[in-house]
Specification:
single chain; alpha+beta; Aspartate Aminotransferase, domain 1; 4 helices; 35% helix
Amino acid sequence: MNGNKTVPTGASVAEFLHGVEPERKSVEAQELDRLFRRVTGFQPQIWGTSIIGYGRYHYRYASGREGAFLATGFAPRRARHSIYIMPGYQDYSAILSRLGKHRLGKSCLYVNKLADIDLEVLGELIRAGLKDLNAIWPVQSE
């Protein structure tokens, strides 16, 4: 049972990426897609209405709540990109210090524009997040 409201929809990733507004965000979203595909080796899926996810994992908490969620991904928002690196950032300060201009959320980071960050460092962060997540809950390609 998936306890999440955000689930894969089967919508076309290419159509979604080309429809992102403004156009600059669409171009950047396509660049992020290429980076995530290269780094993860996973094909993307649209989760919910606006998240592009790569891989998935199944979790089960001690409380009994369980479900599946995207392993990593991003959402190209109008103001900034939300980049989801699970399971969080508690151990990533050394990588984040080299990333560039960003803000942190609980398990995502916010980037206004890709020119503000080093994409190779972002790739390193994605790999580290997947490795740490996989140690807790196995990451699957679909």
